[in-house]
Amino acid sequence: MNFKTLALVSVAALSLAACGKKAEDSTAVDNGTYANTTAMDVNAANTNDTMAVPASGGQAFVNMAAASDAFEIESSKLAETNGASAAVKKFAGQMITAHEGSTAKLKALTATLSPALTPNPALNAEQQQKLADLKTKQGTAFDTAYAAAQVAGHQKTLDTLKGYAATGGVPELKTFASGLAPTVAAHLNMAKSLKS
After folding, report:
1. Between vectors from CA 63 to CA 54 and to CA 148, what angle results, nearest 5°?
2. How far is CA 156 from the centre of its chain?
3. Distance of CA 155 to the CA centre of its chain
4. Would you list the DSSP string of 63-124?
5. Beta-ladder partners of 139
6. Could you report the per-residue pLDDT of 86-133, keeping only the tens digit for each?
7. Are the beta carbons of 169 and 38 closer than 8 angstroms?
8. What does the longest C-alpha to C-alpha distance in the chain come to?
């Protein structure tokens, strides 16, 4: 009897210890998952209408801004060749010029930070999918898809800029975000007019 009782107590103790260990490991995974999700949100992989920007996410913010510019430039270059509407082609030219300019400003600013940040313009999965979809379209079908992509992209970028301007951890980037927000809002309104 004593041996069975001792064995049961030992198994119970080991089970409880394993459960405690599992809970600690689970917490670590949850924190890691949160960190990865936050970085993905900021890099515009989030499919929600708004994107949360962590207060200390300076690198994530500049990556999002660089990727947003890269998407606008690439999709607008497609619009110049695949679009049918003169209004779409004119808007596309304006987007290329504006986003090449904001990329240059971002690179110049991030080089002056201490420590310096290097924007990574890699497109997120959603942007890659939208660009791939646009490559399959021509004429008015392209114009419709391009206008929708521009509205969605500019809205996400505007939400992110406003979020970082309010809660960002790098003062110079907060200033950059708040200064760029009115331009992105104007681009958003222009993109909405393409849809009508």
Report:
1. 95
2. 8
3. 11
4. HHHHHHHHHHHHHHHHHHHHB--HHHHHHHHHHHHHHHHHHHHHHHHHHHSSS---------
5. 83
6. 999 999 999 999 999 999 999 999 999 999 999 999 999 999 999 999
7. no
8. 90
